[in-house]
Amino acid sequence: MNSKEDQTNSEVSNLKNESFIEQQKDPNQINEEIGDNNKLDEKSIEINDEYKFGWSSYSEITNGRFAMIGFLAIILIELFSQQSFLKWAGIL
Predict the structure, then answer these.
(1) Within this chain, do residues 42 and 64 fall inside the same structural domain, yes or no?
(2) pLDDT category, 85, cuts 50, 70, 90?
(3) Which stretches of 1-92 are DSSP H helices?
(4) Tally of domains within the chain
(5) 90 and 66, same structural domain?
(6) pTM of the entire structure?
(7) How far apart (Å, rounded) are the C-alpha atoms in residues 47 and 50?
(8) Are both 4 and 40 inside the same structural domain?
(9) Domain check: are 33 and 74 in the same one?
(10) Looking at the structure, do residues 57 and 26 belong to the same domain, yes or no?
């Protein structure tokens, strides 16, 4: 009894594997998947990084980049002048 059940289970799994392999070989299936990717690419192209007033991802990225440049400049000034930035700038 168990051997027949095992045999039918193995036949079902073999059929599933064969259908999966056929789907992979089917060029229409591949073209449909590529078409879906092209739709995503078209949507991502439509999104533009433009300046918007207020809190936006573009302004956050820009402010972050300028902050990194500023911190790097302060570190370089302290390294080359051998004194603190505040002392170098005449604040202290």
Answers:
(1) no
(2) very high
(3) 2-25, 27-46, 57-81, 85-89
(4) 2
(5) yes
(6) 0.44
(7) 9
(8) yes
(9) no
(10) no
Check residue 29 and give its pLDDT.
58
**pLDDT tens, residue by residue, 28-50:** 555 555 555 666 666 666 656 66
* Cα–Cα distance, 16 to 20 (Å, whole number): 6
Alpha carbon of 3 to those of 14, 30, 36, 41, 54: distances in Å?
16, 38, 44, 51, 70
Sign, CA dihedral 47-51-53-55, equals: positive
Cα separation, 75 vs 79, in Å, equals 6
What single-letter DSSP state applies at residue 52?
-
* pLDDT in the model for residue 64: 96
Q: How many CB atoms lie within 10 A of CB 77?
A: 14
Between CA 84 and CA 89 the distance in angstroms is 9
4 token code pair: 């027949």
